[in-house]
């Protein structure tokens, strides 16, 4: 059998080929070990901190969508339960009405024969029966009224069942949306944590210091007390939460995301706030930053994706990001979009 191996190149000995291949391998290894000019998998310094900040911001935006979808799912779940209860009550009413008409037919049968119209009723759909107007003159006025009422109840019940079916379908879509946003948040947070942990210790410390430093030019702030008793109670609740962990999607008491902390704090004061920071932004009166008072909600970024509570003396309490517990920070720590007095 003929050999299918290629003959060695005539210009190289076995020793020379080994030398060339070794040099090529060394060159490739050096190229792989050298930092890439176009991509840095572990950025450090200001670049790394900025990327971590961007990822946490994107995670907060996704968390807002998650909270919003969760709130919608809870509302739909309540609506579906109410609709199902209404359908059950409607069916009970129809059953009672059918029973009453059946009792009437039985009485007629025992007294000498059942009315043909009632026999038709009990053997077919009342809707079909009532469409046959020619038979109505065989019924008493009482029977006609009972049948018409039964027809209306049946139509109403059919509409309720259709509405319930639509709400159930909407609920399933909302649940899917919650799951999708949850996956997005978890992915963003995992990436941010990996990048933060990959930063040198000095850069990690610098990132945390930067998140506590004022970044916004502030007007002279008011030193007025809380605007109401409920605001004072919410301030006390927020102070009591200091040190508890950031947990995305949580609204206390063991942990919080940013809007969850605001919702929980005001709940302790007997005030119900919406679940998301975008909605909390409009949960009261907008006031200028220069007039901010303890208990006011401070919304950050143009998309209102972060929120905190003003505590006075230029400080807020908020749930910053995973790994950083509820804490005080300067009110100007990031761009402020609005101040809301609840």
Give an overview in words.
There is one protein chain. With 342 residues, the protein is of the alpha+beta class. It has two domains: 154 residues, Helix Hairpins, CATH 1.10.287; 124 residues, endopeptidase fold (from Nostoc punctiforme). Helix content is 57%, strand content 8%. Strands 1-6-2-3-4-5 form a six-stranded antiparallel sheet.
Topology, pairings included?
Blueprint: H1 14-33, H2 45-110, H3 116-123, H4 126-131, H5 141-198, H6 201-212, H7 229-240, H8 258-267, H9 277-280, E1 285-286, E2 297-300, E3 306-312, E4 315-318, E5 327-330, E6 336-341
Describe what is shown at a glance.
The protein is an alpha+beta fold and 342 residues long.
* Number of beta-strand segments: 6
Overall number of domains:
2
State the end-to-end distance.
92 Å
Q: Biggest β-sheet: count, sense, barrel? A: 6 strands, antiparallel
Spatially, the strands of the biggest sheet line up as 1-6-2-3-4-5
Written as H for each helix and E for each strand, in order along the chain, the element string is HHHHHHHHHEEEEEE
What CATH first level of the largest domain would be assigned? Mainly Alpha
- Secondary-structure class: alpha+beta
Which second-level CATH architecture of the largest domain applies?
Orthogonal Bundle
Radius of gyration: 35 Å
Average per-residue pLDDT, rounded, comes to 77
Shape: elongated
β-sheet strand percentage: 5-15%
List low-confidence stretches. Answer: 1-40, 132-137
């Amino acid at each position: 059998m003929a050999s299918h191996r290629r003959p060695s190149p005539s210009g190289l000995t076995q020793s020379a080929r080994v030398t060339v291949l070794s040099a090529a391998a060394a060159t490739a290894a050096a190229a792989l070990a050298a930092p890439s000019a176009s991509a840095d998998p572990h950025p450090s310094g200001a670049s790394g901190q900025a990327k971590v900040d961007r990822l946490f911001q994107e995670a907060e935006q996704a968390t807002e969508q998650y909270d919003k979808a969760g709130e919608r799912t809870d509302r739909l779940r309540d609506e579906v339960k109410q609709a199902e209860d209404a359908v059950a009550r409607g069916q009970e009413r129809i059953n009672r009405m059918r029973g009453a008409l059946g009792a009437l037919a039985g009485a007629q049968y025992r007294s000498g024969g059942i009315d043909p119209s009632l026999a038709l009723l009990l053997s077919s759909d009342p809707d079909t029966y009532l469409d046959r107007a020619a038979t109505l003159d065989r019924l008493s006025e009482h029977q006609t009224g009972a049948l018409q009422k039964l027809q209306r109840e049946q139509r109403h019940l059919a509409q309720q069942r259709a509405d319930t079916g639509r709400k159930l379908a909407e609920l399933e879509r909302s649940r899917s949306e919650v799951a999708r946003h949850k996956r997005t948040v978890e992915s963003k947070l995992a990436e941010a944590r990996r990048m933060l942990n990959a930063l040198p210790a000095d850069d990690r410390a610098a990132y945390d210091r930067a998140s506590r430093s004022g970044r916004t030019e502030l007007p002279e702030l008011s030193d007025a007390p809380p605007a109401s008793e409920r605001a004072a109670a919410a301030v006390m609740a927020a102070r009591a939460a200091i040190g508890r962990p950031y947990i995305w999607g949580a609204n206390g008491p063991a942990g919080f995301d940013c809007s969850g902390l605001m919702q929980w704090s005001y709940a302790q004061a007997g005030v119900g706030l919406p679940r998301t920071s975008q909605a909390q932004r409009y949960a009261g009166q907008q006031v200028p930053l220069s007039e901010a008072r303890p208990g006011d909600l401070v919304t950050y970024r143009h998309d209102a994706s972060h929120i905190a509570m003003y505590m006075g003396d230029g400080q807020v309490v908020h749930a910053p990001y995973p790994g950083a517990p509820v804490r005080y920070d300067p009110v100007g720590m990031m761009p402020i979009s609005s101040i809301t007095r609840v």
